[in-house]
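Fold these two proteins, one after the other.
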Amino acid sequence: MKIPTDQVPQADNIQAIEISLQAVSEGANTYQDIAYALGYKERQGRYYRLACEILRFTYKTGVNQSAITPFGQQYLEANTEDRKEIFGQAVLSSSLFQRVIPLFESRPEGISKEELERFLSHVTETTPKMVGRRTSSVISWLEHAGIIRSVDGIYVLNSLPESVQVVNYNDPTEPLLPSHFALTEYNIIAQRVKAFQNTITFEIDRVKRDRANDAHNRLTNLLAHKIRKKGGIPKSNILVDLATQVNGGKFIFEVKSTTDRNMRSQIRRGISQLYEYRYLQNISDANLVLVLENPLTDNLGWYQDYLIDDRGIYFMWDGDNNFYCPEAIKNNLSFLFESN
């Protein structure tokens, strides 16, 4: 599934984006008005209006009418440092950039502009004439947000900005941890999620109930913190609590709040969810990790062998805001247990 052309920016001048946003806030609601404010040709007014829409700073109120969003107003009222953080949050919420980030994750040595251009040609609805300018815009936005940096002409992924705890994917059909970056891979995941639609509403409601639990949120945030400290990018969508790629390994986490009374049912639910999510995301090589609020009760101690040896699922539990796991699998999850 290709990213639509109206979600791919062609506006590489960050200052011009800010001028456009300021102009809209002052009543310049057509692309001609924006072009005039910039001193650019009319077509550039269209590009910069679209850039503000991609960033969710403005929205269309008509065919050629724009208005500022509360998020855009927040950006205008922020100081320089806060603006950069808000810009980074906006970039990481965009479907295009959520597809681009895993490419950088897979190449810790960095990628060239030409490689990024070929990727965008493959996965977006763009043209050979436009892809060069759009690649420049993608790089400009990522650099301004501090998400990538240039090293001898190669672009390298940085750690997440401090203001971003987790990258939340709004589209469940978008791969969290793609392997091949081929269009067929994106299509397979989209097809699987659509086939799951009959039960997805029930599943989402169940996930929402889980995430409303304070213990669930605390454990998820602690897990995300440890992932970020090791240079990984914690990601989630409406189904998956967390997924990440660290040290070349891929991991899907399911977090469960537990009590003595519900532990077995929570473990059983967690097992089925992990298998389903790995299938939906089409990452057969992903490591599955069940995260529990409490250690196994004595009568459920047998679950350790069942999970690890029979099901191939790692598990760990909370203990005073730190994680514990069986010694036998500690090396497999070393990035969560090394001192931070």
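Now the second one:
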Amino acid sequence: MSKSFHATKAVVTGSSSGIGRAIAISLAKAGVEQLVVHYRSNESGAVETADALRDAGCEPVLLEADLASPAGRQALVAGSFESLGEVQTWVNNAGADVLTGEAAAMDFEGKLRHLLDVDVTGTILLSRTVADRLMNQFERMSSSLPASMVFIGWDQAPEGMEGDAGQMFGPVKAAVMAFAKSLAQTSGPRLRVNTIAPGWIRTSWGESTSDYWNDRAAGQSLMERWGNVDDIAKAVLYAADPANTFLTAQTLQLNGGFNRRF
């Protein structure tokens, strides 16, 4: 694997498991030397991610923070920059899980409010603060390359999907994607901002779901399969690559090619 991230430093929110862990490990293998592993409650998962980073030659920094709270966001920003100094890659991956665990028992309104608090309000307010730090960092070091911020969206948010999931995740992820576009307009050329918009990705929900959803996930992809966390990690590496200095304000649809014949 190319070491284009050699001697750089990164933060991946929500990196104690799943997509976030895959992104963190991929960054470590690409040459990131220090990486903040952020988690809210899954400390054991964060430790597992940290172990994997050490195996890849990367020094992990574990930080616990609730992104729905102002104090949690402040703690993550302060802890990240105090620990790393400069940051070249910031990945906004953290999001509320309302499909599995205790949150799955919430009613629609409860799930929606939780998603809005974490995925929209939390992500936007955190990102504005971080972006200011990253832009100031660029201005202090006029010869440095711009840092990169990557968001995780959803390929069906702009199009819509039926059911409660579509009515929850659609507006939430559409808001995140719209904010990323606006932040890119504000921050260029001092900071690059891009979004990865995955399609059907086999996470913990996908591993235990019904035959209907398995068939739908495969059928709606031209590649005839679920996506996986490593597919997303590869896309994040592309978007965040320090050498991709002309790539900003873009949304990469990562869905295996949406099958319009489905």
